[in-house]
């Protein structure tokens, strides 16, 4: 689709505003040449309600505009879409509620339904730090004779979570459970997942226990998978806790599924504990759980990481027999393993094999190879490879940028290192600060090494 | 997002990052060059590097060497030729560590 400069775009949108009826004209059936059409009309074709109808968050302006077009459509969903587009813009949720009240007053024929209130709820946590807009909406809802249900809870909790107000979300879900209805598993698991990201695991356990005791909301297999995933992740990796959770799962009578196994396997792989990962894989087969693509990818990643590339390669055959085609993740993991062993040329050969099979490499693949080539001191090849990355406009990652800059400087190709710095900043691969501090410290290291007469 | 190691470096030593991005009042020589009275060390580096590029000051035979023009000489210790490798160190001299 052709790009239109922003100034021109508003020029197209403005006549629509002054002549609102044109918004709701019968839609053209087709565009003979879509590429030459300006953006607006084709958008209108797809979704008439998502036009930026309201231009300012000012409530009075919105009311005036509403009055002028209120009767232009008899579609019962029309007021809802207007409410939706204003609520997106409104500075505070109370403005949206006022606008809603205005609609009900001016359009007596309009009877708000569940979705109307869900629209209000989904925007009730924009630019506000209070729960009161949500309470207000819920009261309005009850007054209209609609009881809040699990979907209502879900909308409210999701909007609070996306605004980063987890404490409020927890408060609200408890209140909901005691007043209206307990949350369904989707809402519950969604909240648990968000809590895991920002709070300590004990807080999450306390929340789950409280929900179980007070409102009889039981954690399910998905909840446990989220918890295991959380303890298997990055900085707070705690495999003992993961194993404890698995035993709890057994006690509660859950049968472990592919996702749980994959998650546990990931935990072992991150720690480069290939043998344990294989054990998990064997256990899976014993229990009759069919491994999927993620299982194989995780396993190949883990084996490559712990230096067992030959076994990883064998797995490639196994997965092909089972009908899973290795994807770019599989190949990149293998290349990573080869590069770790110093066999950068083997990794490069794998790139050819991969492309021959019709699997296109991604940025991560290129970065892995660049990193590997530099580590193997094949600077000439690395430079050629970097040209490919540059030509395709791919981003560099921190590790390969650092290694490449170091390799160039070691080779006395400072100007090229500067050029890589420019590319990293220009392509927004790294922040300016990160890119510059790497360059600066590399040059400092180079000078020191020279002063000490070290061979570089 | 900042990379993991960078994040650690910042939390370990916030001053290290601060002296890279904090605005500093410039001495008169540098002020003339960048056309601003305040700049960060990072900003100053970018400014000088882009000046080198736009004026084609890199030596044709050896790109690692910069042939300074008068303007550049005035801020880089009056050297007629500067190696790219020592550029960050030279720039750092204009940004002395603040006394404790």
TrEMBL record, chain A:
Signal peptide extent: none
Comp. bias (Basic residues): 27-42
Keywords: Repeat
SUPFAM superfamilies: HCP-like
Gene3D superfamilies reported in the protein's UniProt record: Tetratricopeptide repeat domain
Family: Belongs to the PPR family. P subfamily.
The keyword Glycosyltransferase is assigned to this record: no
Sequence segments annotated as region (Disordered): 1-55
Protein name: Pentatricopeptide repeat-containing protein
Extent of the PPR repeats: 149-183, 220-256, 257-291, 292-326, 327-361, 362-396, 397-431
TrEMBL record, chain B:
InterPro entries in UniProt: SWIB_domain (IPR019835), SWIB_MDM2_dom_sf (IPR036885), SWIB_MDM2_domain (IPR003121)
Pfam families per the UniProt record, alphabetical: SWIB
Domain of life the protein comes from: Eukaryota
Lineage: Eukaryota, Viridiplantae, Streptophyta, Embryophyta, Tracheophyta
Record Gene3D superfamilies: SWIB/MDM2 domain
SMART domains: SWIB
SUPFAM superfamilies, alphabetized: SWIB/MDM2 domain
Entry protein name: DM2 domain-containing protein
All copies of domain DM2, residue ranges: 19-97
């Amino acid at each position: 689709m052709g790009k239109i400069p922003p100034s021109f775009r508003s020029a197209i949108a403005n006549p629509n505003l002054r002549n609102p009826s044109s918004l709701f004209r019968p839609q053209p059936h087709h565009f003979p040449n879509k590429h030459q059409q300006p953006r607006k009309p084709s958008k209108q074709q797809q979704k008439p309600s998502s036009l930026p109808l309201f231009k300012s968050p000012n409530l009075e302006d919105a009311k005036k505009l509403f009055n002028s077009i209120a009767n232009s459509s008899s579609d019962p969903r029309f007021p809802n879409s207007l409410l939706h587009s204003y609520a997106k813009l409104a500075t505070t949720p109370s403005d949206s509620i006022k606008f809603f009240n205005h609609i009900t007053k001016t359009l007596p024929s309009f009877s708000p339904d569940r979705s109307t209130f869900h629209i209000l709820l989904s925007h009730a946590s924009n630019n506000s730090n209070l729960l009161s807009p949500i309470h207000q909406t819920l009261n309005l809802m009850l007054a209209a004779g609609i009881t809040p249900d699990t979907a209502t809870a879900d909308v409210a909790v999701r909007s609070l979570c996306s605004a980063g107000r987890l404490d409020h979300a927890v408060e609200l879900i408890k209140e909901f459970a005691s007043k209206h209805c307990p949350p369904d598993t989707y809402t519950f698991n969604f909240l648990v997942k968000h809590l895991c990201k920002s709070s300590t695991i004990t807080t999450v356990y306390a929340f789950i226990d409280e929900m179980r005791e007070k409102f009889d909301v039981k954690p399910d297999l998905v909840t446990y998978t989220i918890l295991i995933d959380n303890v298997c992740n990055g900085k707070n990796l705690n495999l003992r806790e993961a194993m404890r959770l698995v035993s709890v799962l057994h006690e509660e009578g859950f049968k472990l599924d592919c996702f749980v196994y994959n998650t546990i396997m990931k935990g072992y792989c991150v720690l480069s504990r290939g043998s344990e990962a294989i054990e998990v894989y064997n256990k899976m087969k014993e229990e009759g759980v069919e491994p999927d693509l993620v299982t194989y990818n995780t396993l190949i990643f883990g084996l490559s990481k712990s230096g067992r590339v030959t076994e990883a390669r064998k797995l490639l055959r196994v997965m092909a027999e089972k009908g899973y085609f290795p994807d770019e993740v599989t190949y990149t993991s293998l290349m990573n393993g080869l590069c770790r062993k110093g066999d950068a040329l083997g990794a490069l050969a794998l790139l050819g094999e991969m492309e021959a099979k019709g699997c296109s490499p991604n940025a991560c693949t290129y970065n892995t190879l660049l990193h590997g080539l530099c580590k193997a001191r094949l600077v000439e090849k690395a430079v050629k490879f970097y040209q490919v990355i540059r030509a395709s406009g791919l981003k560099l990652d921190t590790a390969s940028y650092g290694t490449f800059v170091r390799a160039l400087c070691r080779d006395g190709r400072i100007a090229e290192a500067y050029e890589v710095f420019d590319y990293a900043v220009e392509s927004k691969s790294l922040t300016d600060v990160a890119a510059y501090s790497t360059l600066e410290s590399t040059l400092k290291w180079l000078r020191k090494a020279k002063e000490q007469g070290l061979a570089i | 997002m900042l990379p993991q190691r960078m994040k650690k470096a910042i939390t370990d030593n916030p001053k290290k990052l601060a002296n890279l991005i904090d605005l500093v009042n410039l001495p008169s020589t540098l002020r003339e060059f960048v056309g601003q009275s305040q700049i960060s060390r990072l900003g100053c580096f970018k400014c000088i590097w882009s000046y080198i590029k736009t004026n084609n000051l890199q030596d044709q035979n050896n790109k690692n060497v910069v042939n300074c023009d008068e303007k550049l000489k005035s801020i880089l210790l009056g050297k007629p030729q500067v190696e790219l490798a020592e550029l960050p160190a030279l720039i750092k001299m204009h940004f002395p560590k603040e006394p404790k």
